[in-house]
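Annotated sample (chain length 365).
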Amino acid sequence: MKVIISGGGTGGHVFPAIAIADELKKRMPETEILFVGAKDKIEMEKVPKAGYPIKGLWISGLQRKLTLKNLMFPFKLIHSLWKAFWIVKRFKPDVVIGVGGFASGPTLEVASRMGIPCLLQEQNSYAGITNKILAKKVQKICVAYDKMDRFFPAGKIVLTGNPIRKDILQKQANRAEGIKHFDLDIVKKTIVIIGGSMGARSINQGMRASMQLLKDHPQVQVLWQSGKLYIDEYQVCETAKLPNVKISAFIDRMDLAYTMADVVIGRAGASTISELCIVGKAAVLMPSPNVAEDHQTKNAMALVEQSAAMLVKDADAKEKMISTALEILNDAEKQKSLEQNILKLAKPQATETIVDEIIKLVKKP
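Output written by the structure step:
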């Protein structure tokens, strides 16, 4: 079988794509897989690192205001459609998978016109613009949330959940291993803060503003991922110097971090939420305001409405972020309820189910 997987732009698109590729190779080792992404985006680094070839398209999204980039968009689109045509024509895939992000647009557009079966994977509770445009052209759409027929034809939708990184799914580590790895105190309750690999400014500001609060709660410790962009600025602040706070630019072992966490504070990206559901952790979600259609707030609300997480607005980080986490830690029943409710939303077989749908498309006469 020959498969093209297209899309990217963020880790939330790229890591599920790699998980799908890994499952295809696990089931059918002879499968040939080619990724198609956007030049200069995260996929151009992460996909080769995962062991797969990738081709880059000269494509980007429209900006919200009039810029030179917007004036270039028609030329980029025409160029990308032409390049995608030749990629598809030469590779001759049996199926093409779109995981969201601008690169998937040209690739699935030309593949569908050439009569090749296509499948979309939508990670968020609010569909991205590229997937909404492509919905009419594909055969199947794998989603992670209910009520997605607001955006897609109901007959094409399969509720699968989001693919999860293998190390998170395996869950073989225990709390003691996590505490030892990060050199923390096994007696203390632990808050893990994840702001993404680059970091989140408001989350970091919330930590800096919580110095006195954390000083007053020495029985609680915090593993604080500041992100690469912010480590130099925040590792010298007073909060980072507290004995019960450990700051790091990047968390290398998220499986261990999740294992030892009593509460997790993070953004509400689709991948983060899917991971939190799998590991069953009490969570304080802080949706990023800098995403299209405010889809992270919609992701978070899908959990809040099920009493499966707590939400703190980005603007309230300084006042409410740490106090909300402490509120959970001080209420054992609340913490247990959040853990049980979020675990009910987990779909650990998501990757396998998506690959089942891909195989059905190829075998369909």
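Annotation: The mean pLDDT is 91.
Annotation: The radius of gyration is 21 Å.
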